Amino acid sequence: AVALRLTGDYQAAAWALRQCLDAAQAIDNRYYTTRCLGNLGSVAYCQQEYRQAEAYLQQALELWAKIGHEPYRAWVLNQLGYVLLAAGEQRQAETKKCFVQALQLSTRHKLAPFAMDAFVGVAWLLAGRGDRRGAAQLLTLVEQHPASAYETKTQAHTLLDQLAGEIPDDGPAAVKPSD
Fold it and tell me: What are phi and psi of 88, to 5 degrees?
């Protein structure tokens, strides 16, 4: 199902995940139920069905809290952060909270790929409030970090391209820390 999402076949991915969700619920496997809910949220996000994505991801977070599995919660919090980013300005405090919690969990459990994903979300928030230098610094780190997943590097590169007009001519390395 994840491979289908990555290839852009969202309908097939959603169908496969719903089948997995039904099977996991039928045998009362909360771990796989929660994984399916998180991935269904990711697919709904890709389809720009933000309310549905948020509902799936909130369910996943609630179940992860009951199970006590913090590492995967970091991934779900990142996904929820991106969903809330799509909701716009009115949800920025919630969005920031998701990315901060994801970073805390990622750090605690040494999950550098999840931390890199959260950094991209934080960079979006920084860019949205006008801190293009801070955003560029984070995005450059993500692009160059060996633990960054391909999808995360692609997101970082996309935002860096959007910020290109705001970055000094001698490149991202010339960007100084924000005040």
Answer: 100, -165
Phi, psi of 75 (to 5 degrees): -65, -45
| Amino acid identity at 156 | A
171 pLDDT band, cuts 50/70/90, is: very low
Stated pTM of the model: 0.85
CA-to-CA distance for 31 and 21, rounded, in angstroms? 10
Residues with Cβ within 8 Å of residue 99, at least 6 apart in sequence:
77, 78, 81, 118, 121, 122, 125
Residues in the chain: 179
* pLDDT, tens only, 44-70: 999 999 999 999 999 999 999 898 888
**Residue 33 Cα distances to 21, 36, 61, 145, angstroms:** 5, 5, 11, 32
> Residue 33 corresponds to which amino acid?
T
Query: Is 89 within 8 Å of 66 (Cβ atoms)?
Result: no
Q: Which of 141, 83, 154, 136 is nearest to 112 (CA)?
A: 141
Distance CA(13)–CA(4), nearest Å, equals 5
Indicate the angle between helix axes 50-67 and 70-87, nearest 10 degrees: 160
Torsion of CA 37, 143, 149, 48, to 10 degrees: 30
